[in-house]
Every structure is written in C-alpha cells, then in structure tokens.
C-alpha cells in the first residue's frame, strides 16, 4: 500500500516536473555563480526584480478568478490558521530552544518562526498547486507580514514598534497587490458589472476583473508572474554559490535550527491541521494543506536575518543558519511534497 502510493506520487508528472524544475534551476544558479557567469550582484538584482515586480504580479493575478462558497471558506480558514500558527510558534519555540540563552535564543526563535514564505515558498506553491495555491499562499501570508514586522522587529531590536515598520508592513508592492487582489476577489459580486464574451458565451463580470475586461493589461501581468519562479530559484542558487558551506556546517547550533525550521515546523502544522480537519473545526483541502506546509518548510526569512545583523543579535549564527536551512529546504521540499500527496491518498483532506 505504502509503496503503491509512493510510486503513484513519484510518477505524477506535475509533481515530478515541479520538483525537478526547482532543483535544476537552483543548481543552475549555483553553478553560474561558482563559474563567475553571475557576479556577486546578480542574486541581489534578481531578488529585487522578483520581490518588486514578479511576485506582486503573481499575487494579484491569483485573485483574478470567480469566487464560490468553497474557495471563500477555504480562504477564510487559511487566513485564520495563518494568524494562529504564528501565535503557536511564538509559544512553542521557547521550549524548543530552551537550552540556549539570551540573544542566541531570541535569534533562533525568530528565525524559526519566520521563513522565506514570499521569496522561496510562493514560487514553489505556484509550480505545484497553480493559481489556487498562490491564492491561498497570498492569504496565508497576511498573518506572516503582521507578525514579522511587529513581533519579529520588537523581539530582535528590543524597541517599540516604529512607524517605518508599519510602512514596510503595508506599503511594499507584494502586500499592496495582495490586498488589492483580495478586495476585488471578495467584493466582485457587488462591483459594477460589464458584459464580456467568453468561450461559453456572454457573461457579466466585475469591471475590475481585468482578466476578462482588460486582457491587454492582464497579459503583461501574466508574463511577469511567469518569471517569478525561475528568477527566484536562480537567485537562491546564486546566493548559495557565494558562501562557504564548510564554515556553516561546523555550527551544530545551525544544524539544530535547520532541523527545527525545515522539519519540525511543518510537522507541527500537519499535526494541528490534521486534527482541525478531522474535527471539522478548521478544515482545509489538500491544496490548502500543501500550500501551508510548503510555506512553512521554507528557510530563514531575509528580513529576519537582516534583523539579526542590524541589531547585532548573533549575526554569524543568522548567516550560517540561513545557508544551512536553505540547503536543507531544497533537500526536504520534494519529500514534503511527496508526503502531502500520500496524505491525499488516505482521503483525509
């Protein structure tokens, strides 16, 4: 039974293609950096393009679809869990890292709670679960943004919340695109309607549904959304090619952190969501579960690592942890995808 499910999962061309694309393009970026085809600025430039142009287009585009009771209920549950899981991790990270003290514990906790959901997670979700996955990933990330720029900042800086972080929370392109898309998706039935021609005939849609009302504007956004994944993976590979794995691998603390971030955190999510789905308290679909697990199995968030460096909270540990968790995430991501597919075969989600 187990091997039949495993064989079915590993021969699914959608899953296999998504896994191979992720690994091969990251490897290509790594080789290009090692061979100095990419210089030390390429990773940063690609990251900036992804974060300011491609991912906002991907997030907005995901909301350009019809709303129905099931997707609305799923989105609501993902939003609730996207807030609850950070409260849970804030509590659970304390005993997980109880043997560490002071700045080291604070850094490990914040780096564990906040992963690279936007830059690392969403492109993989899009490759595996398509537009529906990106929709739920964008909704899930609302809680991430709130806690990253509030709890994460306060914990690492020791200061009170500053206005600049409120601006960072709400005024970056990805958040703006997410909230605009979410607004259109939720209220499309109440907006002024226009008649458009579709493959099945004439239909009425909200005038802001640019996928139907302004395809000349939606198509460039589709192209931009399409480059999010490959550019993100090239940037990840290029970044990995810049740092010394040997030095980072000497840190046992960083290895323990990587285990907690890439293995333990996804397990916590699966365990809670399994219980919540079986009890029908907060049920999620397979796509919802898979999206959340991929998002939570991501390596160190860039902003969290930047906090550690900026506020001198064990910056070396943050750098080593970021590298090892990225490598661990690349290795573990295919495994998590297979595990999620196997859970599907059990008929729970």
Indicate the structural class: mainly alpha
What is the string of helix and strand elements? HHHHHHHHEEHHHHHHHH
Helix content: over 70%
Low-confidence stretches: none
Strand order across the largest sheet: 1-2
The counted number of beta strands is: 2
CATH class identity: Mainly Alpha
- Principal-axis shape equals globular
Transmembrane segments: 15-33, 45-63, 78-98, 110-129, 135-154, 166-187, 223-243, 255-278, 284-309, 321-343
Subcellular location: Membrane
Keywords: Cell membrane, Membrane, Transmembrane, Transmembrane helix, Transport
Pfam families: Mem_trans
Name the features.
mainly alpha, 16 helices
Please give a structural write-up.
The protein has 349 residues and is mainly α. The chain has one domain: Na+/H+ antiporter like fold (Up-down Bundle). Helices cover 77% and strands 3% of the residues. The chain has helices at 2-10, 13-34, 42-62, 69-96, 102-113, 117-157, 163-171, 173-187, 210-213, 215-226, 228-240, 245-249, 252-278, 286-296, 302-310, 315-345, and strands at 193-198, 201-206. Strand 1 and strand 2 (201-206) form a beta hairpin. It is globular, with a radius of gyration of 20 Å. The two termini are 18 Å apart. The model has no long low-confidence stretch (mean pLDDT 88). Pfam families: Mem_trans. Keywords: Cell membrane, Membrane, Transmembrane, Transmembrane helix, Transport.
